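Annex B. Sample input.
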Amino acid sequence: MSDTLHDTIHRVTQRVIEKSSDSRTAYLDLIAREADNQPDRAQVSCSNLAHAYAGALEDQTALKANRGPNIGIVSAYNDMLSAHQPYGRYPERLKIYAREVGATAQVAGATPAMCDGVTQGETGMELSLFSRDVIALSTGVALSHAMYDSALMLGICDKIVPGLVIGALRFGHLPAIFVPSGPMPSGISNKQKQATRQLYAEGKATRAQLLESELGSYHSPGTCTFYGTANSNQMMMEMMGLHIPGSAFIQPGTKLRQALDREAVHRVAAIGRSGNDYRPLGHCVDEKAIINAAIGLLATGGSTNHAIHIPAMARAAGVQFDWTDLAELSGAVPLVANVYPNGAGDVNHFHDAGGMGYVIGTLLSEGLCHRDVLTVGAGDLSAYAREPGLDGDTLTWREVGKSGDDTMLKPASDPFQPDGGMRLVQGNLGRACFKSSAVARDRYTVEAPCRVFETQHAVAEAFSAGELDRDVVVVVRFQGPRANGMPELHKLTPPLGVLQDRGYKVALVTDGRMSGASGKVPAAIHCTPEALGGGPLSKLRDGDVVKICATTGELSTTADLDSRDPAPDSLDQQGMGRELFAMFRMHADGAEKGGSAMLATGGM
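Annex B, continued. Sample output.
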C-alpha cells in the first residue's frame, strides 16, 4: 500500500486543518475539560448512584463495586424502520457481552428514528432534516448523566447516524463505537422496481401493482439495499474508523453479525481511560477522518445528503469543511464502486464483490485516503482494508484480494470514472451540489427555459397535464432549511426520468434535497442561498433560460435578477407537528454549513 498521499488530498487536508485551527483547538480544550471534570463514579453522591443503579438488577453488585467500565447504550430502535427493527433485542445481548469482559452496560437513552422512505412526498418529510438535531439533542440527554465510561451508538439510517455522531462528539472525551445491524437480503432487481415506478408515473401500472413491486424490494428486517443515505452512512463509519472493521454490510441474524456486535462491546470496554489504549471519540473524529468520509462518499457515488451531513458532523468536532473542499476532492478521487442507483447491483452484491474492505484497500494503495487516523479498532485504517469472517466461532479478518465483480467494484488505478461522484455548480443562481455518478456524461449540461414550482406535487400535476413535454429546467423553490425544513423531493424522480427517457433535455434546480437514491436526471440541489429571504431562486420566472453544467461547474441564468423583487412564499407550517419546529426553521443555517439550527446557535 502506498505511503505517499495524493497531492490534492494533502492540499485539501492542510487547508481544512489551517481554517479549523481555532475551532478545533477550542473543541479539544472542551473535551479535555469535560474529561477532567467527570468524576469517578465512586465519588458521586450515593443518592445519585442509587437512582442510576436501581433498575440494573443483574449488574447492581458490579456497579456498586465500581468493578469495571460502564457502557452507555444509545439506541435508535423502533420497529417501523426495517433497518432498526433488529435493535429491539440488542440491549440484552450487549449486556451479556459486557459481562464477559468485566464491564457493565445500560441503555442510556433512546433517540427518534424517522424513515424518509415512509414520509417521502408527505408533509412529515418537512421534519426529516431537523430530526437530526433532535437526535443529537437526545444523545446529549442520554449521555448527560455522567455514569458512563464509553458508549455504543445503535443507528443506521438517514439523519440518525449523523445525529448520533454530532451528539456523541459533544461528549468526545468518551470512546464510542457505532454498531450497525446490516442490510436485508436482496429482493426484486432494482431495474424492475424502477421500471414499475415509471410505469405508475405514466398511468400504465395500478397502485396495487406498484405496492406489490415495492414490497418485493423492501421485504424484511434490515437496511434497504439500495445505496442511499443509510448505506452511505455505514460506508462513512468504516472510512472514519468508527465501526469494528467490516461491520457495515453483514446481514442481521447471522453468526457473523453477532460476533461483530460482541467485538464492539469488548473493544469499547478496552479503549476507555482506565486502560492503556484510550481512544476518545473526539480524537478519532479529526480533520483526516472527515476528509476520509468525504473521499469514501466520492469514491462510491454515495448519497447527496452527505454534502449537508459531513459539514455538520465536522462542525461538531471543531472542523471546518465546505463544498469547495468536497469539489476539489472530487476532482482527484476516482469512482471505484457502481452500486444502485448508479449501477445494477445492490449493497449485498457490493459486499459480496469485496465491499468496504476492497474500497479502502484500493484507495490506500493509490494514496487516496488517510491511513494514519485514530480508529476505534486496534490499528489504523489499514485494518479496515480486510473483511471479517468466522473460523468456527472465532472472529477473524482476511485479505479481500481482487474484486469479485468488476461491474460492481474496480481498482482505483482503473476506475469507472476518473473523478468522484459529486460536483459543485455555482453562478448567479447560487451554489449547489450535482451528483454526477449516476448521470450520463452527455447529460452533464442542460440549458433550457425553466418552469418554476413551489411544491413537488405541483410538478407532478404539470407532468400529468403534459405541460413539461419539452426541454425544461424544473425549478422547485422554497424548499430550504428555513423555508420548510429542506425535505427530500424524491417524488420528482419518476416523472423527470420519464421526460428524459422521452428524449427531452431535463434538469432539476432546487434549494431542497433529493433522496440518497438520486438517479439519472441531472440536478443542482441544496441550492444556497435558499429562496426564502431573497435568494436567487426566488427571482426566477417561468421561461427564464437556466443553465446547469457539471463539466464547467456552472449554475446560471441569463435573466436580469437584480431588477426583480423576490417572489412571496406561500408556506403553510401548521399540522403534522411542523409548528413544533418553528424555532429550528427560524435559526437554521445554510445547506453548505449543514442546515442546522442547533449548530448555528450553539457556538460551534
